[in-house]
Each structure stands twice: as structure tokens, then as C-alpha cells.
Design the sequence.
């Protein structure tokens, strides 16, 4: 049984007004941070224990936060997998902001992280 997790939602949109660029550095941090990211991503899945993950990376941001990027594949109501979708989770000292999208926004955020910089909303 899951316990509800209080989220301090921070939606991170790249290229929007009021965004502040910051550096990003890939790190070989503790797997527990990636596990926290996975928990946030699968929180509302029909069957979170069957989620598949690939291509995950952990980054330290210039402001001290961490970010997890990767792809997730989850089951739908019929028990079939939907296909891998990009996800992005930003872990802050206050909580976690989740950007779990199936469009280009999560892909853009992860691409920015991999190039060494990302635009954070001010």
C-alpha cells in the first residue's frame, strides 16, 4: 500500500519567460535518488510495480537540486504496455517537482540536462 506523497509541484518549462539558465552535471549519485524519481513517476499508474525503466540519468543542477531523466513504460487498464515515454523529475530540498509528459517538454528538459545546462523557471 502506498502512502500519499505531498508534492510541491514545480513545473519546469524550457524556453518560457522568466526562466533562469543553470548548469547541470551528470553524477553517479545514490540509486535511492533514482528510486525516489521512479516513485513520483509511477504514483498514478494502474500497476506501478510492473513499470519498466530505461536510459535513466541523474544530474546535479547548479542551484543544488537534482534531476532524474529517463523513459518509463507502464501498463494500461487492459494490462498491455503503452510504450516508453520520456520523464523528468526534479528533486529539491523542499520536495519534488514532477514533469512527466508524453510530449516534447520532458524530452527538451532531458536534452538540456545532457548538454550541461537547463532553463529553470524563476
Sequence:
Amino acid at each position: 500500500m502506498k502512502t500519499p506523497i505531498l508534492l510541491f509541484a514545480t513545473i519546469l518549462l524550457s524556453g518560457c519567460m522568466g526562466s533562469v539558465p543553470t548548469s547541470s552535471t551528470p553524477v553517479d549519485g545514490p540509486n535511492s535518488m533514482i528510486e525516489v524519481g521512479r516513485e513520483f513517476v509511477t504514483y498514478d499508474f494502474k500497476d506501478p510495480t510492473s513499470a519498466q525503466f530505461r536510459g535513466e540519468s541523474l544530474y546535479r543542477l547548479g542551484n543544488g537540486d537534482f534531476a532524474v531523466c529517463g523513459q518509463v513504460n507502464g501498463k494500461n487498464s487492459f494490462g498491455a504496455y503503452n510504450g516508453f515515454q520520456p520523464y523528468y523529475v526534479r528533486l529539491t530540498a523542499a520536495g519534488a517537482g514532477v514533469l512527466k509528459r508524453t510530449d516534447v517538454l520532458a524530452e527538451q528538459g532531458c536534452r538540456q540536462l545532457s548538454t550541461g545546462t537547463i532553463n529553470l523557471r524563476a
Observations:
- Residues 98 and 118 are 15 Å apart (CA to CA).
- Helices lie at 31-42, 104-114.
- The chain has two helices and six strands.
- The mean pLDDT is 75.
